Amino acid sequence: MGGPGGDPVSQPVSREEFARTLAALGGFEPAPAVAVGVSGGGDSVGLVVLLRHWVAERGGSLLALTVDHGLRPDSAGEAAAVGQAMARLGIPHRILRWEGEKPPAGVQAAARVARHRLLADACADAGILHLALAHHRDDQAETVLLRLARGSGIDGLAGMAPVRADGRVRVIRPLLGFSHDRLLATCRAEGVEWIEDPSNRNPRFARARLRAARDLLGGEGLDGARLGEVARRAGRARAALEQATAVLLAEIATVHPEGWIALAPAPLFAAPAEIALRALARALAVVGGPAHPVRDEALERLFASLPDGQGGTLGGCVVRMRRGTVMVAREPVAATERLSVPPGGTVRWDGRFDLRLSPRWGRPVTVAALGAAGWREWGARRAPERLPDLPVPVRETLPSLWSGTELLGVPMIGMCYGFGADGQHPVDRASFCPLSSLGRPAFTVVSDRDGII
């Protein structure tokens, strides 16, 4: 536990400073309902303390959420201790558990994805739009250093955004302008304790190694404030580039309901290279899913091959010229998911399609890619003029319904609305709802009286 004492130079974050920061973020209702991710560390406890006062002054509400990743034997007890600390502060608290098998490698990245999912789902369940996270200035500095070490460009050096729309939740990071020491001072001033996370000092993790080298880096001028300035300037550049990319995509992109995108080649190839590459990358993310990030070098090679009519595969997608447009379609060998769905059930398949099955099925149905053989079978059942003219990769990656080896239906190209033959049960429905939006908002840069957060 942390406690009284500490660096006298570090001043607590005042309620006025915090209120100005949230005013700069904007977008709150008159009586704001906010959820906060709290690990029990000094940073998140400091955020809880500051938010507690802020929502109370505005007649709002605060819900504390703790994710138990189950990675250490003591994690359940620590999560319970956080709940007890929140109870002493009079703040409702929920523990969210990461269930299931953990990956043997890349565990921190997997835990981060699971954490964001659990927090977002909990916010949606509670009807809360705003999720506050306790990333601070030193976290931002570490993020910039890590991405610099990995050769990141402008996007990586921009670090973390203070505001980000993430599906059903609005993620806010109001502490990016404040140091870790100031947050600990805030906890001390309020007389609250915190839990030190031992993984913060584990040299297995890159962030822990960077923290150990902080004094050395600071002596060379790479302190939190300087790296925060790097992130600020890179964020400003990133926002401008993403805005230009959105304008280009609005001009050239056609999103087809069967889950593919066509790009008009002339304006794509005429655009500045950085904007054109970003537009292609956005299309790949929409069709292939955000789980397939692409490297700059591979993206550049693919883009350079398109004017010659070559193309290739990247990010779970097939990209090539087709009938005078650049086709971005799902790669058939990547669409391998098979899901069993009960009658009347709903499912998200391949991270791209939302399906609702009719209750008329008397048994569970398997949702899988149609495949080449499935397309031939489906085509044999229908008049040629009723078959849609789709690219081959699109045909083979349509969601289809199976019972064993029997093809039951293809909702995307069959009747998707109305009622079944008995007039009672709705038919199967499917819609293209990618996790990543083609027209997502540009990277957010927030200004206050002291500059850009």
From TrEMBL:
Subcellular location: Cytoplasm
InterPro entries reported for this sequence: Rossmann-like_a/b/a_fold, TilS/TtcA_N, tRNA_Ile_lys_synt, tRNA_Ile_lys_synt_N
One Pfam family this sequence matches: ATP_bind_3
Record-linked SUPFAM superfamilies: Adenine nucleotide alpha hydrolases-like
Reaction equations catalysed: cytidine(34) in tRNA(Ile2) + L-lysine + ATP = lysidine(34) in tRNA(Ile2) + AMP + diphosphate + H(+)
Domain notes: The N-terminal region contains the highly conserved SGGXDS motif, predicted to be a P-loop motif involved in ATP binding.
Protein's job: Ligates lysine onto the cytidine present at position 34 of the AUA codon-specific tRNA(Ile) that contains the anticodon CAU, in an ATP-dependent manner. Cytidine is converted to lysidine, thus changing the amino acid specificity of the tRNA from methionine to isoleucine.
Protein name according to UniProt: tRNA(Ile)-lysidine synthase
Organism: Azospirillum endophyticum
